[in-house]
Amino acid sequence: MKMAKANPADLDMALELAYALESISSRHGATMPETIAKPQGGEDDTEPFSVEDSENCRRVCEYLIRLAPSASLFRVVMGMTVLLDPTNKVVDPTASTLEHHPDTLAALAAMAKSASDGRE
User: Fold this and answer.
1) Under the phi-then-psi rule, with left for phi > 0, alpha for psi from -120 to 50, and beta for the rest, what region is 118?
2) What angle do CA 48, 52, 57 make, to 5 degrees?
3) DSSP letter string over 74-113?
4) Cα angle 38, 50, 30; round to 5
5) In this predicted model, what pLDDT tens digit does every residue of 69-80 receive, in sequence order?
6) Which terminus of the chain faces fewer neighbouring Cβ atoms within 10 Å, N or C?
7) pLDDT, tens digit, for every residue of 6-31?
8) For 99, left (φ over 0), alpha (ψ -120 to 50), or beta?
């Protein structure tokens, strides 16, 4: 399966969205996304977020609605889906981290051996 690669704007938007969702749903004190947070008293103070506060919810919804069309979240998510698809043999399906597929590693090792033997 082929899929268009996410461009830098897609990745930036996906990261900003992920950060915003983490901010408003944090178990350790939900805060407004940094981009739309109103300045608080101290340097490290963050504006709290409450789902019970209609003003907070309106601001977050407006922010997310403006953010969504700025790039393609679909390209980011589908790109990772294609990358992780075991039939594509891009990453090791048994690893819990992003690692080269064993077939790729074997091919690279064979190429290196061939090159060192003088047979490219």
Assistant:
1) left
2) 70
3) HHHHHHHHHHH-GGG--B-TT-SS--B-HHHHHHHHHHHH
4) 75
5) 999 999 999 999
6) C
7) 999 999 999 999 999 999 999 889 99
8) beta
How distant is the alpha carbon of residue 58 from its chain centre? 25
Residue among 90, 120, 118, 95 at smallest CA distance from 105: 90
Query: Which pair of structure tokens corresponds to residue 68?
Result: 């969504």
What is the C-alpha to C-alpha distance for residues 24 and 51, in angstroms, rounded to an integer? 8
If DSSP codes are grouped into helix, strand and coil, which group holds residue 31? strand
Two structure tokens written together for 49: 């977020």
CB hemisphere CA count around 41 (13 angstroms): 0
3-state helix, strand, coil in the chain (%, to 5): 55, 5, 40
Domain boundaries along the sequence of the chain: 1-86, 89-120
Instruction: Judge whether 103 and 89 are in contact, CB under 8 Å.
Output: yes
CA distances from 114 to 33, 88, 102, 110, 117 (A): 53, 25, 18, 6, 5
